[in-house]
Specification:
The complex is a heterodimer of chains A (about 240) and B (about 90). Chain A is about 75% helix and about 0% strand. With about 240 residues, chain A is an all-alpha fold. In chain A, helix 4 (about 110-130) packs antiparallel against helix 5. The longest helix of chain B is centred in the last third of the chain and has 39 residues, at about 45-85. The chains are: A mainly alpha (about 240), B mainly alpha (about 90).
Chain lengths: ~240, ~90
């Protein structure tokens, strides 16, 4: 990842965390100042969807042309996406506690998000249960496509077909309930971009780390093999 | 090229940003409106303390990411050396 991209992410996030707390927001009953949580809670979910999208992209690429490197991209993006999702869930529950009256109210949006996270957790369970690298990569790539396809209706369609407390549900487009005006957009969109870039950055670090790890293992195996051959005097 | 570490650069940038904020601190306070908002908080209620705390955490985490970045880079270089030596 290029350094200027990191710098853009940092500048955006410093701006978001300052302006998000200080700038004017719409004055709404019940929500009061918690409307500002929009700047911090929602970008987690946007970031998660983007990271999962990158993950499924590499899963499809893997199925087209199997390569351990593509598989690694796929799994690490899913990993960071899941972290974002868990943070989105926790922050959402804290917010709900003070505006909906309880951290968990069996709301369609909450249940949908919960199931989506569980579906992605199962992705790692599946990977962990397979020894053979190729088998693991292929099966989990197929599962990844299923997980992404399941996440879309769980997060974006089913909650809208039911009565939900969450904005963007019960037929309402997401932002109207907040009167998300241009002032809020000016902070919200930079927050989404900033956090998404940080997510990609972390995934990038994980991929590089895993690549090194794998190469070291390969080197060791090679050494073992060489010494075995030397021991047997077959070279 | 030898420059200051990204973490230190970031800390300095953050301090400058906070100072700028304090200088630009608005002295306005709107008159009472129906929904309860933390206007008093922002005028003289130490909201800037919260901003600074949040920014410190953000800077800390980003600095940590940079240090991880450096560690991975070192590992990659080491690996390259080792594989070349073989």
């Amino acid at each position: 990842m290029k350094n200027w991209v990191k710098l853009v992410a940092i500048i955006l996030l410093v701006y978001v965390h300052t302006a998000g707390l200080l700038m004017e927001v719409p004055r709404l009953n019940i929500l009061n100042e918690t409307v500002r949580a929009l700047y911090f809670h929602v970008p987690m979910w946007f970031g998660m969807v983007l990271l999962f999208l990158i993950s499924v992209y590499y899963a499809i690429r893997y199925l087209g042309k199997p390569d351990p490197a593509t598989d690694r991209m796929s799994v690490e993006f899913a990993n960071v996406g899941l972290v974002f999702g868990v943070l989105g869930m926790i922050t959402g529950m804290i917010w709900a506690n003070y505006t909906w009256g309880a951290p968990w109210s069996q709301d369609p949006k909450q249940i949908g998000a919960g199931i989506a996270l569980l579906v992605y957790m199962a992705y790692f369970v599946l990977r962990g249960s397979l020894e053979n690298q190729e088998q693991r990569a292929r099966l989990s790539a197929v599962y990844n496509i299923f997980a992404f396809a399941a996440m879309i209706p769980l997060l974006f369609i089913i909650p809208r077909m039911n009565n939900s407390l969450h904005p963007g549900s019960g037929g309402n487009p997401g932002f109207n309930a907040y009167d998300l005006d241009n002032r809020m957009r000016l902070i919200f969109y930079p927050a989404v971009v900033g956090w998404s870039l940080v997510g990609v950055w972390i995934a990038n670090l994980r991929i590089r780390f895993k690549t090194v790890e794998e190469k070291v293992t390969d080197l060791e195996n090679e050494n073992d093999l060489t010494s075995q051959v030397l021991d047997k005097g077959l070279h | 090229m030898k420059t200051i570490s990204p973490a230190r650069f970031l800390t300095r940038a953050c301090i400058k940003w906070v100072l700028l904020l304090l200088a630009l601190m608005p002295a306005t306070s709107t008159t009472a409106q129906t929904p309860e908002m933390a206007d008093g908080m922002r005028a003289d209620g130490k909201i800037y303390v919260v901003v600074v705390i949040v920014l410190v955490i953000l800077a800390g985490l980003i600095g940590y990411l940079f240090s991880l970045d450096r560690k991975v880079k070192k590992l990659e270089a080491l690996l390259k050396e080792k594989s070349a030596a073989k």
